[in-house]
Write a structure and sequence with these properties.
- The protein has 21 helices and ten strands.
- By secondary structure, the protein is α/β, with parallel strands linked by helices.
- The chain has a five-stranded parallel beta sheet, sandwiched between helices. A three-stranded mixed beta sheet has the order 1-2-3. A two-stranded antiparallel sheet has the order 4-5.
- Helix 6 runs parallel beside helix 7 and helix 16 packs antiparallel against helix 18.
- It binds adenosine-5'-diphosphate and magnesium ion.
């Protein structure tokens, strides 16, 4: 019976092969698996890495459960033994379908004691495993990151990186945009795709905040060197929200050194921020200059067709629910600035339909949009500002959007531009586009004119302060 495990696994593989349409996937994810032993209905298989194990559990769990049940009966279990590499070998006893076990650090059993290097970042609660747990969110793949004009360059650069990390000219890749336009999603997608292409590469996703906290903690414990070494061991480092490092000179200094080390060694760095490198105040010049070495590109708000596609994709992923096309279009036309809001509205409509058994109609959509937009009005939109300015001067939004050069309209338009620049994160070009289709130079000129008038014209200053109050009060 010595070979029993091999025989059983071989039968499992036959079924798996038949069930997976794509031979490449079978080759990638099942051929490297070695059956180790079979004991009391528990089949132990060896997988090459933590990531590999997570991928199997994420994508093939149902199939694995089915074949185990078929070959070993209902009491059958699957157990993984995870080999990190020859220097850091760990065995993870995690039973199939029990992903939660991953969060428990005590399921790791060192195979040989002296090969175990306790990583300080495990203690820091960063979920770093012996080598590294990538911290990736499997929901955010390339597959469900809809491509549009708004993200084409960033998306294809990201895709190219995953094909050849560290070797493209996009190093670093610096993604920037206002919130909710897909930076975090894209970063995870790049990480996941890289791992799929190169299971042995160490990928790490970390937020600027986590990075800072870890560094502060390490400094307190005199472990700065360990911190640096740890980060220098990463092949693909993704740091999200780097603007959170503003004003943190110690952390920036550390990142500067890590950056140089990784870059020199052909490792890939990907950064995301809510501002472009040019607008990142409070980040040291030498670090900023590094950020600009590769490709800095922004993600824009998606246009209507892309918004529709994003909505349809989310609906499809949600299962059986049917949403009429006119409702989808209505949502897409109503929510323009932010994909997160688009999702929020869709989710509340789905919830209403599932929980309260309401039929999905235009009225329901209107209701939800009203509620949602009101409750998330924290972020001021240009439309909102234009409405307040128009209200104040008793003119119409159409007049602001028109090409008229009537003095009072020009002034209102300039004020709308001024407040948009002041209160939103939109680029000058975008503000111009939304205020009468002007170019960025016009917006800049408006901003300067208003600032100058504020210093010289008392009556004008009163207007500006009044409007400012209204923007704040209503928000
Ligand atoms: P950011 O990091 O720029 O603030 P996120 O990546 O968190 O934005 O995106 C917000 C939400 O919008 C996420 O749930 C994400 O999945 C979704 N999203 C953004 N862009 C797209 C896209 N192009 N296709 C599908 N979903 C998207
Ligand atoms: Mg983000």
């Amino acid at each position: 019976m010595e070979n029993n495990h091999s025989a059983v696994w071989k039968k499992c593989l036959d079924i798996i092969r038949d069930n997976i349409g794509d031979p490449k996937s079978f080759k990638t994810w099942f051929e490297p698996i070695k059956p180790l032993h079979l004991d009391k209905g528990v089949l132990t298989i060896q997988v090459p890495s933590q990531f590999f194990y997570e991928w199997l559990e994420e994508h093939y769990i149902d199939l694995l459960k089915k074949v185990i049940k078929r070959e070993l009966g209902t009491g059958g279990r699957l157990q993984y033994s995870i080999v990190m590499d020859t220097t850091d070998s760990f065995q993870v006893k995690a039973q199939s379908g029990n992903r939660k076990a991953l969060d428990n650090p005590f399921i790791k059993i060192p195979i040989t004691d002296d090969s175990v290097r306790m990583d300080p970042w495990i203690r820091a609660g960063m979920q770093m495993k012996a080598k590294v747990n990538s911290n990736l969110n499997f929901k955010y793949t390339f597959d469900n990151f809809i491509e549009g004009e708004c993200n084409r360059l960033a998306r294809s650069a990201g895709y190219a990186i995953a094909e050849d990390p560290g070797k493209t000219s996009f190093n670093p890749l610096f993604l920037h945009s206002p919130t909710g336009l897909g930076k975090t999603h894209l970063m995870h997608a790049i990480g996941i795709q890289t791992k799929e292409n190169f299971p042995d590469k160490t990928v790490l996703y970390v937020s600027g905040e986590q990075f800072t906290q870890q560094f502060v903690e390490a400094s307190k414990n005199h472990e700065k060197n360990d911190f640096a070494h740890f980060y220098q061991s990463i092949d693909v480092l993704l740091i999200d929200d780097v603007h959170k490092l503003a004003g943190r000179s110690g952390t920036q200094d550390q990142l500067f050194h890590i950056f140089n080390y990784l870059h020199q060694n052909g490792k890939q760095i990907i950064l995301a921020s809510d501002k472009s490198p040019v607008d990142l105040g409070d980040i040291e010049a030498r670090l900023l200059s590094r950020f600009k070495w590769g490709l800095a590109t922004d993600l824009e708000a998606p246009n209507v067709p892309t918004r529709i596609e994003i909505l349809k994709n989310k609906i499809k992923n949600n299962g059986e629910i049917d949403i009429p096309n006119d409702v989808i279009e209505y949502i897409a036309y109503s929510i323009s600035a932010n994909v997160r809001e688009l999702e929020g509205v869709l989710n509340s409509i789905l919830a209403q339909s599932i929980l309260n058994k309401r039929t999905i109609t235009l009225d329901l959509a209107r209701d939800m949009i009203d509620k949602f937009v009101r409750s998330s009005a924290k972020e001021v939109s240009i439309d909102y500002i234009k409405n307040i300015v128009c209200d104040y001067f008793q003119i119409t939004v159409d007049e602001i959007n028109s090409r008229t050069r009537k003095r009072e309209i020009v002034q209102a338009r300039q004020l709308a531009m001024y407040f948009s620049k002041k209160h939103t994160k939109y680029s000058l070009a975008n503000i111009g586009m939304q205020c009468g289709n002007k170019d960025h130079a016009t917006v800049l000129h408006a901003y300067r004119t208003v600032s100058d008038l504020l210093d010289t014209d008392k009556q004008f200053k009163v207007y500006v302060e009044d409007i400012e109050k209204k923007i704040k009060v209503n928000n």
